[in-house]
Write a structure and sequence with these properties.
The protein is of the alpha/beta class. It has five helices and five strands. α3 crosses α5. The chain is globular and about 35 Å long.
């Protein structure tokens, strides 16, 4: 069975998570710079047999799109051109950064590692993907 990749999109960093082959569990894969996302996805989609990408949809508490939504829509448009056979879907990512920070704080890792913003992005992508899997 093919896998699903989740993206927590940011202007500087992008957190990425991936499922197992049975699409039951989400695993944090990495955090990369925004400029590296397309080459990374090309490699990952081919290597891991990915057929779906879930991209976080950042909504404010009043259900309006956040400021970054326009950039995400441009990113999705670009993905559709490059990967026409890949299903691209969105998933509400409200509170995922907060949950990721709580997870990190509760994990017992050192204070220095807790300040690593790339860890928050990777965990946020994992939370987005696991929530998406549980809803399906």
């Amino acid at each position: 069975m093919s896998k699903i990749v989740a993206i927590d999109y940011g202007l500087k960093r992008i957190g990425i998570a991936i499922t197992d082959e049975l699409r039951v569990f989400a695993f944090g894969l990495t955090t990369i710079s925004n400029s590296e996302i397309i080459p990374f996805l090309k490699k990952t989609i081919n290597k891991e047999q990915v057929d779906t990408i879930v991209i976080g949809k950042p909504l404010q508490s009043n259900n309006r799109p956040s400021e970054i939504e326009d950039q995400i829509l441009l990113f999705i448009k670009n993905l559709n051109k490059i990967f026409p056979k890949i299903i691209i879907t969105r998933y509400d990512e409200r509170f995922t950064s907060l949950l990721a920070k709580q997870t990190i704080n509760n994990s017992g890792i050192t204070k220095k590692k807790r300040k690593n913003k790339s860890l928050v992005d990777k965990i946020s992508a994992t939370i987005i993907l696991q929530s998406y899997l549980e809803k399906k």
